[in-house]
């Protein structure tokens, strides 16, 4: 799988596609991302799919993080 940066000719990233990753310590990852001033869309919470959060990548794409 490859993810490419947003081309300079585009102003807005595709918002219809979301990538997800399974992580081992979601709270620690969210803390690190907040310390680096990254955009947290939804704070970690339990839902029907498990303990997860959504963040934005530098181009504005949604990335779901779910704890294993």
TrEMBL record:
What is the annotated signal peptide range for this record? none
What is the name attached to this protein's record?
VOC domain-containing protein
Domain VOC, residue spans: 1-68
Which InterPro entries does the annotation name? Glyas_Bleomycin-R_OHBP_Dase (IPR029068), VOC_core (IPR037523)
Give the originating organism: Sporocytophaga myxococcoides
Per its UniProt record, what Gene3D superfamilies does this chain match?
A: 2,3-Dihydroxybiphenyl 1,2-Dioxygenase, domain 1
